[in-house]
Design brief:
about 160 residues, Helix Hairpins
Length: about 160
Amino acid sequence: MDEPITRNAYAILGVTPDSDDAAIAAAYRILARRYHPDLAGDAATGRMIWVNAAFERLRTPERRAAYDRELERNGGVPTPLRPEPDGTAAAGPPPGRPSGSVLGFGRHLGWSIGEIARADPGYLVWLEERREGRPYLDEIDRTLRAIGYRVDRERPRPETRRR
């Protein structure tokens, strides 16, 4: 995972400690558009994990006050940020009973194709249209058919998909 030069949540987001909540949220959105793996590709995953960890520390006034108290207790040295300890993304940890390939990117990081199909089959349809989904096209199609999500509908051909 790409580790930032600094582990200070304010510095990672590019804001100052006196920034208001709106400025912090705006900085997070800008960075999310730049580093989200669904937009910037797999290479940006590590950076996005750190951006998420920084925003998690500052996203509410209560969390921000707790972070500021930690900084003060440590003489201005930031408490180490801890990205999701289990390596998961927005969807959280995998639900269990894995089947098929496991994704190393995106909102279902660490989930198998089968787990995603049970919880969020629409994500698999969306993934089929993305560059990152190309290695999994046949598996996604088979899985969606097996759970009854896709019936007698042909999956779009690669040449008709968005690039």
